[in-house]
Amino acid sequence: MTDKRDEAETNDIPPSALALDQQLCFAVYSAAHAFNRTYKPLLDAYGLTYPQYIVLMTLWEEDGRTVKALGETLGLDSGTLSPLLKRLEAAGHIRRARDKADERQVLITLTDKGKAMQDAAIGILKGIRQATGCTVENLQALTGELQQLSARLEAAARHDTAA
Amino acid sequence: MTDKRDEAETNDIPPSALALDQQLCFAVYSAAHAFNRTYKPLLDAYGLTYPQYIVLMTLWEEDGRTVKALGETLGLDSGTLSPLLKRLEAAGHIRRARDKADERQVLITLTDKGKAMQDAAIGILKGIRQATGCTVENLQALTGELQQLSARLEAAARHDTAA
DNA sequence: CAAAATTAGATTGTGCGCAATATAATTTTG
DNA sequence: CAAAATTATATTGCGCACAATCTAATTTTG
Predict the structure, then answer these.
(1) What one-character-per-residue DSSP string does A59-114 give?
(2) Percent of chain A at pLDDT above 70?
(3) pLDDT single digits (tens) A72-128
(4) Nucleotides of D under 7 A from a protein CB
(5) Are residues B20 and A128 in contact, defined by beta-carbon separation less than 8 angstroms?
(6) What is the pTM of this model?
(7) Chain A residues 132-161 within an 8 A CB cutoff of chain B
(8) Contact A35/B18, CB-based, under 8 Å?
(9) With a 7 Å cutoff on the CB, does A96 touch strand D?
(10) To the nearest 5 percent, what fractions of chain A are helix, strand and coil?
(11) For chain A, which terminal residue's Cβ has fewer other Cβ atoms within 10 angstroms, N or C?
(12) Do the strands B65-66 and B94-98 form a parallel or antiparallel pair, or are they unpaired?
């Protein structure tokens, strides 16, 4: 067993490594699409998309957040959130209002309709869990590994950009 | 330890389960974005997007495929692929030509430029592996788990649609 | 073989997702 | 306190992603 010699262990790339079905990035990309396709019929019943749904989830955890705070939690910028939030407002789930204290900020608050969606979310969550076919422990383990992976990828991106 | 009683094990949902950071779907969604952000600077150098890149990867494995075959491999439909393939053709990476034997089909073939990108892909792959901070074994294990997850999600979606 | 059904792609419309830019409000500095 | 820098959000443009629809080609059926 050769011990890890710094980068040596990541540098021996066999030709077969370019095969699509061996790449983690593609497995993640496909799983994201698979989740989206699973959520779609469940969310269509409420006229929501998955990104809109996770915005509501964020607000259920803490209402009255700014657009910036939502963006940091979800990893999305204003170019994505601004129109999305307008659609959520048009659908009656949220209200958008400039902060009186700092008019640069827009505070997002749930309407009664937006709060009520939380009840439906329990049912949706059950449907998704069943579709994954995973035990709760299995779900938690995989979730944790992906969170670590994302953190490392973002850290690497930050390093390269900063350098 | 209570044995699994059919659905019982998936039905006890504590309120905290709606927390965003406990959801596998969001971990997958975030990891997909993180990968995309990591790939972007590497692919920008060649004027490619990640979806365009995986189309090329598919063609490196087997050239001369139809749009439908590409769509089945990648999980994408013609609404996504048609314009994407036109951009890849405009950039000189592929050629599109109707099949003489069956004029409904369009055969996609790599140009020399498209084949040459395969050399650059090795370097990109190294950069990505380093950014993940994972060992090869770790990458393979996670990839396998996600492939199983996607398969179960797609199977569940197919069941529900068919029923 | 002609009508009906199926199949492959392309097109249109809507909604992300993000870079680049613009605008307005606030904070920092000289 | 006024000019400069920073901050928060909005807008624009481009590229996925997918449902719905359309056209043309092929296959199936009567």
Answers:
(1) HHHSSSEEHHHHHHHHT--HHHHHHHHHHHHHTTSEEEEE-SS-TT-EEEEE-HHH
(2) 88
(3) 999 999 999 999 999 999 999 999 999 999 999 999 999 999 999 999 999 999 999
(4) 7-13, 15-20, 24-27
(5) no
(6) 0.91
(7) 132-136, 139-140, 142-143, 145-147, 149-150, 152-154, 156-157, 160-161
(8) no
(9) yes
(10) 70, 5, 25
(11) N
(12) unpaired
Closest by Cα among B88, B101, B6 to B52: B88
Residues A7 and A9: their CA atoms lie apart, in Å, by: 5
Structural domains of chain B in order of their starting residue, each with its CATH number: 24-132 (1.10.10.10)
Q: Which residue has the closest alpha carbon to D19 C1'?
A: B79
Which nucleotide has the least CA–C1' distance to B86? C10
Give the containing element (helix H, strand E) for B13.
none
At which residue do the structure tokens 């892909």 appear?
A: B121
Give B14-70 as a DSSP string: -GGGG-GGG-HHHHHHHHHHHHHHHHHHHHHTTT--HHHHHHHHHHHHSSSEEHHHH
Q: Indicate the average pLDDT of chain A.
A: 90
pLDDT per position as a tens digit, A33-51? 999 999 999 999 999 999 9
Could you tell me the two tokens for A135? 């035990």
Mean pLDDT is lowest, of A78-92, A98-112, B1-15, B87-101, for: B1-15
Rounded Cα distance between B143 and A70, Å, is 30
| Residue found by looking up tokens 């997850």 in the block | B149
Q: Which two tokens stand for residue A31?
A: 């799983």
Integer Cα distance of A64 and B20 in angstroms = 17
Cross-sheet strand order for the sheet of B65-66: B65-66, B106-110, B94-98
